[in-house]
Amino acid sequence: MTGKWGELTAYQPRIIKLLSKSIQKNRLAHAYLFEGKKGTGKKEVSLLLAKSFFCTNRQDRGEPCEECRNCRRIESGNHPDLHHIEPDGLSIKKWQIQELQGEFTKTGLESNKKLYIISHADKMTTNAANSLLKFLEEPNSDTVAVLLTEQVHQILNTIRSRCQILTFTPLSSQVIQRELEKQEVPQSLAGLVANVTNNLSEALELSQDDWFAQARAKVIKLYEVLNTRKGHALIFIHEQWMPFFKEKNMQESGLDLLLYIYKDIISIQIGNEDKVIYQDLFQQLKQHALRISQKSAANKILAILEAKKRLHSNASPQLLMEHLVLTLQEG
Length: 331
Known about the structure:
Blueprint: H1 5-8, H2 13-24, E1 31-36, H3 42-54, H4 69-76, E2 82-85, H5 94-105, E3 114-118, H6 126-137, E4 143-149, H7 157-160, E5 164-168, H8 173-182, H9 187-196, H10 200-207, H11 210-228, H12 233-244, H13 248-269, H14 282-291, H15 294-312, H16 317-329
Parallel strand pairs: 1-4, 1-5, 2-3, 3-4
């Protein structure tokens, strides 16, 4: 996820609007706590905020120019007054915060402005958190702190109370799909991946994962066997499904991908054709949707959900899948 404030509005509209207005009015808070799941854009927004903060030629709506010395330095990761702290091993240590405080006692090289970003702020040791607290209690008017976390409940209440907390919400499937297509992921794959996860970085990994692409192909093959060669479904499970979906997490992924096919059939039956995930199977799914009742399609979805439930209760995956295909062949 990249871009300017205007481009990022689709991803976190409330947050982008708030920050861009604060920049335009020069009313940034002295400390922000960006909290939310991985892949929701916290790091990207913190770097864009830094660019706007330091930019010497800010544009309309507080947009950084991307061309001045400060913007270019931030882009390349070597601005002297922007400091980024990551965990040292499993935690952020007291010495890292003290080193940061030392940096901030020096006069800024370009101006008196300074900004620091602390990734995984929840991983601060107690001593590190207490050191940071002292820092937050005596804010400099030209200093901005941005703390990033996926575990906001693990941040000290005293730190939370001194920050403006901005909650980054999971991205919608439409947003994920658009981002994947920008990366030249085929539409058929992008649509499916976008419904599997609302984590953008995870979605990009999945879209490039050969196993996931093969899993999609296996699921489509099973669906076709169930509808055109019913007598071969049990053989397919034995010879192709089980050897491929070896582990429990793989079996669960396979069931999820199969579930989306039958959800697509219901989407077609109720007139929500634009919601179909397997767009490349559209004509095939449409013909199937005309042949079966909505109740029958719903029962197939319930059968897959029941199979997922049994998978978690340690039922035999082989017997579970055999029972499922026999159920899906009915009606």
